[in-house]
Amino acid sequence: MRPNSRFAVVQPIGLDQVAAAAGDDPDVLRLENLDTDIAPPEVAVQATAQALMERQGNSWLPLTGLPVLREAVAAELLTRTGLGYDPDRQIVITSGGTSAVMPVLLSVTEPEDPVFLTDPTYAGLLQRVRLAGAHPSLVPLRVERGYWRLDREELVEVDRAAALLLMSPSMPSGMVFDQDDWETIAEVCARTGAYLIYDAAMERIVFDGHPRINPCRVDGLAERTIVIGSMSKEYRMIGWRIGWIAGPADIMERIRLATIYNTTVASGFAQLGAAAALRDPSGAGVREAVAEYQARHDVVIEQLAGLPVVPAAGGWSCLLDAEALSLTAQELSDRLLARGRVAATPMTAWGGAVATRHVRLVFSNEPIARLSSLRARVEAALG
Description:
Layout: H1 15-22, E1 29-30, H2 42-53, H3 67-81, E2 91-94, H4 101-108, E3 114-119, H5 123-131, E4 135-144, E5 147-150, H6 152-155, E6 163-167, H7 179-192, E7 195-199, E8 225-230, E9 243-246, H8 249-263, H9 268-278, H10 286-303, E10 309-310, E11 317-321, H11 329-340, E12 342-343, E13 345-346, E14 358-362, H12 368-371, H13 374-382
Parallel strand pairs: 1-12, 3-4, 3-6, 6-7, 7-8
Antiparallel strand pairs: 2-9, 4-5, 8-9, 10-11, 11-14, 13-14
Helix pairs in contact: 2-9, 3-9, 4-8, 11-13
């Protein structure tokens, strides 16, 4: 096999290895999983089934997404951002939110350009920066007053950047950016000329007492922000594989071309289901799903009281500090599975020094009744 320098630094995501080791044992508590057991919106199921039965959407075209979905995304973004995106010029539909990352990176970076992410961050973001040929630089998260916070003092030292690639809430930590964070990010983008690539996949999955701020509403960021959205997390429509990119019209010309050549187009019948969910006047169950995620999160934190777990301000997961338990993240992951029957992913590929000392506990795919066994399982693993 010929060498390829891109893959010298790209790391395996880790969760698939844990899932394979866990197998299909029903006793294993599946906290490595990126899925959710909360049902997708019924309106989306019905619209997708109707499209299939009526043979709608079985097409390659339009290459940038069906007009009805681009218009629904524009309406959704108007509510979130306050901006009136042109559905034809400023929105492109993608095959899931994560598939949007590569065409954006290819459009805004040159080889070896620095792209800043948090430590920890979603491996799907970090490793795509490497595959795109850019250089990932990590700004650490710190635990302050019991929650993850951005190290703004380190961020303000950034003097060269092509882009900042950020999530709020962030995977895997559940950290949520506040107003001061976004203002610091705006200052860095203005000073360096960087784009903000904002992964908004979990934007509304925020728990009580924590802010939900869209960066496009922060002075100076709207004209620099490229938004990546998805139906997978908030709307629980993982299998539909529908995402989108929205941003300033000039850079979207480039992103549109990169997207067409990257993934062609998402399935048309799935797009029709997504449009139905976005346009559902009842809210497609988002509020109810968020309440359930918070309830599950709270059970996890209660179960692990006294252990080095950091609560999440939102999202689907929280982190347990393996090094504080005198273990490596891989050792803790192995013990959790072998002794406690808990599948949990070590954060080896999810950042730098902060990420690699933690394992991730995903609470989106296990009900409260099963999560209530977590304490006994962890004690068995550590005993």
